[in-house]
Description:
CATH superfamily of the largest domain: Response regulator
CATH class of the largest domain: Alpha Beta
Strand content: 5-15%
Radius of gyration: 18 Å
Oligomer: single chain
Number of helices: 11
Mean pLDDT: 84
Largest sheet: 5 strands, parallel
Helix content: 40-55%
Low-confidence stretches: none
Amino acid sequence: MLVASRSLVRRGIAALVSSEQGLKVVAEASSLAEALQGAQAIRPAAFVLDLPEHELSATSQLREVLPASSLLALVEPNSSLPYFVSRVERAGVAILSKDTEPHEFCDAIRRVAAGAFVIDPALRHAGPHILTFRERTILLQVADGRRNREIAERLSLSIRTVENHMNNILAKLAVDNRMQAVIAAQRKGLL
Length: 191
């Protein structure tokens, strides 16, 4: 289902998606409210969202109504990116820049509809606020040589919460382990 506030943009995206083999726009809406009204009957595999930031922040409503549907948001490459990307990403919404090439966009739709979580690499490295305050705090503890159990005790968190934050940190920094995360964060000026 395609949800875009501007008619011309919505029709352009619909034409592009419809021209791709294996992709189909099953419905269109001009707002999140309109999408919520029609989505339950259609039950789309994925939503492609091109909406103002304040509406994208309300995607949790779509999650409540259709938890099995995947969400892919198109965002301006120069919006209030670091904070916004982090907020939308935490909501489980895949994010793609509007600067993305058409074939990459269609590939992302396929991947998201199949259950993959996509974050545009250009947006992932958007700025120093890509890590939340808690993630930076945990990463500083890792840089000091502490293990998850020690970090959990020091910050009054469960070990599972620390592990979840570490997984988010690794994904956001596109690295495979704790040491690489510390090095990448230091190079990017995040610590």
